[in-house]
Amino acid sequence: MINITYKFIFTNNREVKFTVDLDRPVLFTTNPKDPDVEWTNLDFNKCSNCPLNSAEIKKCPTALDVQHAMLEFHDVLSTEIVKTYVETENRSYFKECDAQTGLKALVGLIMATSGCPILKEMKGMAYFHLPFATIEETVFRSVTTYLLKQYYKFIDKQEPDWSLQNIPAYFDTIQIVNEFFFQRIKAASKADANLNVIVSLSSQSQLISLSIDEYLESLKELIVGK
Fold first, then answer.
1. In tens digits, what is the pLDDT along the chain, a chain of 226 residues?
2. Which of 7, 9, 70, 155 has the fewest CB atoms below 10 angstroms from its CB?
3. Which residues, including other chains, have CB under 8 Å from residue 19's CB and lie 6 or more apart?
4. Contact call for residues 131 and 105 (beta carbons, < 8 A)
5. Are 106 and 88 in contact (CB under 8 A)?
6. Phi then psi for 215, rounded to 5 degrees?
7. 6-40 as b/e, with b when 16 or more CB fall inside 10 Å?
8. HSE on the CB side for 51, CA within 13 Å?
9. On the CB side of 89, how many CA atoms lie within 13 Å of its CA?
């Protein structure tokens, strides 16, 4: 079991903590301790590329996973300053930042390790979670994880994508999920922190999809040298 814990301390000294089990069971039904709300239903603004069968599955596993965080931040402004602590097995992180930045790191981790058949492709990155990552760090981690997958495909006698030609298409699928998920979170929020987190994640995936070659070129000097 691999756990990563996020703790937030707000300006009014309210403290909330979330422990994310990266290998937790997939949720398809509401936890009895949580309210059964409409926006967690699979058919509530269901992603257009979702492969789950609504006749068999009634709840969106990602929505169920982020429900607690959305509840705790539903009336928090994205600009509110929070103290954010992140504890992993081997190291600790701290950042005093706006609520959007801290929540984005948490929600990104939760979504990547949820039962979503599309987002699960990002789970490999989650095992090497880097809170508050810059766009360059995200590109580096995304591409290196992708290339490692291609190596394993090669070892397993499958066709690898060494040229990275399929990366933009993959981030396009992530973008679709984020766009539809925004509509779910909109129904669960009073203030804008929750909403801006999804907007930020969506913008990030779109930016990587459109500008992957530019980011790779900017990393070349760091990796290869001048």
1. 799 999 999 999 999 999 999 999 887 776 666 778 899 999 999 999 999 999 999 999 999 999 999 889 988 889 999 999 999 999 999 999 999 999 999 999 999 999 999 998 899 999 999 999 998 899 899 999 999 999 999 999 999 999 999 988 888 898 899 888 888 888 777 667 777 888 788 778 877 877 888 888 888 888 887 6
2. 155
3. 3, 4, 5, 6
4. yes
5. no
6. -65, -40
7. bbbebeeeeebebebebebeebeebeeeeeebebb
8. 7
9. 8
Mapped onto helix, strand or coil, the DSSP state of residue 225 is coil
Q: Which sign, positive or negative, has the C-alpha torsion 168, 174, 177, 179? A: negative
Contacts 24+ apart (CB under 8 A), 178-182: 178/202, 178/205, 180/45, 180/46, 180/47, 180/48, 181/45, 181/47, 181/62, 181/63, 181/111
Q: Which of 123, 126, 120, 90 is nearest to 105 (CA)?
A: 126
Structure tokens given for 98? 């706006």
Q: Taking the CA atoms of the chain, what radius of gyration do you get in angstroms?
A: 18
Give the integer Cα–Cα distance in Å for 226 and 223: 9
Longest Cα–Cα distance in the chain: 58
Give the global pTM.
Answer: 0.89
Instruction: Give SS3 for 92.
Output: strand
Contacts of 40 (CB under 8 A, 6+ apart): 30, 59, 60, 63, 64, 67, 184
